[in-house]
Amino acid sequence: MRTPIKISSDQEFTMSAAYVNVIFEYLTEKGFDCKALAAEANIQREDPLSRVSRRVFAELFFEAVRLTQNEYLGLHLGERVQPRHYGIISYIALSAPTLRGAIEKSLRYQALVDSINRVELAEVDGYPALVWEKTVTPDLWQLADLDVVSWVTCARWGIGPTFNPFRVDLCHVSPSNTEEYNRVFGCPLRFNAPRYALLFEQDLLSLPMGQPNPALQELMESHARRLMIQTTDNASQLDRIRTLISQRLTDGEPTLESIASSLELGPRTLQRKLADAGLTLSKLVDEVRMELAKRYLHDPEFQISEAAFLLGFSEQSSLQRAFKRWTGTTPTKWRNSHFEVGMDK
C-alpha cells in the first residue's frame, strides 16, 4: 500500500474479505487494477471465510481514497453495500419478522463480518439507537462514515428504500459542504457528537421486514453459530502460536515450518498472518522468551541457568545478553530489584 497509516493491528480486529470486496468493486468500475491491489495486500477475495486485518483494511481504504480523490468515499461505499457483502448475516437479518429482530440478529453475529466496529442497540435522547463504541480516531472518520451508512443501507433492504433515520450523530467535524451527507442520510445530522449513533423513530423498530422466514432464519443461524466458533478460533490463533512457541523452546527456537504444521497451515500462510499482525516468527519468539524469562525470575527457586535452558538458549550468557536487550539490565539485577534476593546461580 502506498498510504500506510499508524493504526493498531491487533489480531482480534478483522473484517471479512467479502465485505472488503465493496472497495474492489468500486475501484474496478473506476478502471483500476484491483487484481494487483489484492495481491499486494494478500487479500483472498474469492475465499468467503478469509479475513482481513484492521491495518490492511484501513490501508486499502485510504489507497482507494488516494486513487479516486473521493473525499466522500466512506458515504459512497456504504451506499453500495449489498447482501452478498454481509454473507450469511444478510439471510438471517432479512428473514427476521421486524426491523428490531433484524438488528438484534445482526449484532449477535456481527463479528462474522466485522470485529473492528463495536455496535450496540441502546437509547439516546429517549430514542432507540445504534451506538458505536468510540474506537475510531479522528483521522479515520471516513471509515466511520462507511460503517454508519452501511447500517442505513441494510435497513433500507428490509423495510424499503424510503427509510431514513430520525437523526445521525457523527463524531467528526462538519465538512464545509454537507449536501452529500444530507442526501445519503436524509435526516438531521449532528457533527462533533460524543459518539457515532443512528437514532430511530420510536415505532420504527416494530415495522415488519419484507420477507420474514422463521425456518430459513433458524437454518442460517445454526450455520452462523458454527462460523462464530471458527472465527473466535481464528481470532485466538496468535495465542495458540505463543503457546506452541513456549512449549517448544526447550528444543531451541521453533521454525516457521514446525509451527505452521501444528496449526495445519502452510508456512507462507502463517507468515502472512503474522505479517498482518505486524509480526514475524522471530519477533514473536523474542516476545514469548521475554515474558517467560520474567515469569521464571519471579520465582526465587528458579536458577538463571535453568531459565536459560527452558527458554531455548544454548548457554546462560545468551540469556544474559538477550535479557539486557529487553530490559536494559541483567537477570540478577532485575530479580534483585523485584525481590531483594541476591541469587545469581
Can you characterise this structure?
The strands form 2 sheets. Strands 3-4-7-5-6 form a 5-stranded mixed β-sheet. Strands 1-2 form a two-stranded antiparallel ribbon. With 345 residues, it is an alpha+beta fold. It folds into 2 domains: 14-227, H-NOX domain (Alpha-Beta Complex), CATH 3.90.1520; 236-339, Homeodomain-like (Arc Repressor Mutant, subunit A, Orthogonal Bundle), CATH 1.10.10. The protein contains 17 helices and 7 strands. Helix 4 packs parallel to helix 8 (141-159), helix 6 runs antiparallel to helix 7 and helix 15 crosses helix 16.
Computed Rg? 25 Å
Q: Helicity range of the residues? A: 40-55%
Sketch the major β-sheet. Answer: 5 strands, mixed
CATH topology of the largest domain: H-NOX domain
Number of strands: 7
**Distance between termini?**
50 Å
Q: Using the coordinates above, name the CATH class of the largest domain.
A: Alpha Beta
- CATH architecture grouping of the largest domain: Alpha-Beta Complex
Question: Poorly predicted ranges (pLDDT <50, ≥5 residues)?
Answer: 1-12, 340-345
Assign an overall shape: elongated
Helix/strand structural class: alpha+beta
Mean pLDDT: 85
Order of helices and strands: EHHEHHHHHEEHEHEEHHHHHHHH
Provide the descriptors you would attach to this structure in a database record.
five-stranded mixed sheet; elongated; alpha+beta; 345 residues; Arc Repressor Mutant, subunit A; H-NOX domain; 8% strand; single chain; disordered C terminus
